[in-house]
Amino acid sequence: MELKQLPKIALGAWAWGNDGTFGSDLSAADLKPVFDAAMNASLNLWDTAFAYGMGASEKVLGEFLKNYPRDSYFISDKFTPQCADPNAANAVIDMFENSAKLLGVDTMDIYWIHNPIGAPQWIRKLIPLAKANKIGRIGLSNHNLAEIKEAAAILEADGLKVAAIQNHYSLLNRSSEASGILDYCKENGITFFSYMVLEQGALSGKYDTKHPFPATSDRGKVYNPMLPQLEKLTAGLKEIADKHGVSVAQVPIAWAIAKGTLPIIGVTKVYQVEDALRAAALNLTDEEIKTMEQLANDMSLNVIRYWEKEMK
Fold first, then answer.
1. Strand (E) positions, the chain?
2. What is the domain count for the chain?
3. Whose CA is closest to 65, among 111, 15, 99?
4. The domain spanning residue 174 has which CATH number?
5. Which of 53, 120, 213, 299 has its CA 20 to 30 A from that of 128?
6. How many helices (H) and strands (E) does the chain have?
7. ω into residue 69 within 30 of 0, thus cis?
8. Domain membership flag for residue 211
């Protein structure tokens, strides 16, 4: 596959799977204006996975994409070990083909091993797809530095390479930076995708103790108890946002870009697409970045989620 330059920001369709994480029930009619706004703004890198609603996210996205030429968008999809048939001889190929069918495509611009459960067998089983020109870039998500280097060595032996890393990276979780993963990516020409930059909305400025997350959602259970502390951080983010005349949500996104990463921003509303677009053009000063990071460090909050680990 021809490798085209990626946009500065990817748009995440995790919530489109309606799997309970976000506490909402989104229909295709709700999401179509969001998709249209993004494509009109040339934000055309879409991140999804079969695991997001067991194909629900991919199916909705595929319905929207079918009226667009294949070279007008990028697809970032994932092989999730926990969703694979453990008895299948070709579990990676099976999931790839199923996801491709739901999306209405033959190839994936980026295809990820979603997590290191069962590693490194899955990266070996991905190689035939890459050699068949079905995958543009090979990615690893939720892998630590040792796991990344192990996979890189396996691919290198077959003339391939790790092209992308996707980990939880935000003002509140910088373990991929502290562990040396960001530096490793820069040294090896690997694109680092930062997910949960806004901590599922906790750093968007939309939520506080008076306006909590839906109590029954996964994110509500995690972040609502933290809101009293997070209010200090979001107040600091608002000061910076006000100086630039932007919304609070745009500031952590701009921070992630300034750190040399490609943030994945979940979108379920048109204004979130607009925030992402404006954040890509926002330039923060070194002093603002330092202030934001110090405020976040002062929180001492653990936002590592149940499917993750701290990168060491």
1. 10-12, 45-47, 74-79, 108-113, 135-141, 162-168, 191-195, 262-266
2. 1
3. 99
4. 3.20.20.100
5. 53
6. 12, 8
7. no
8. yes
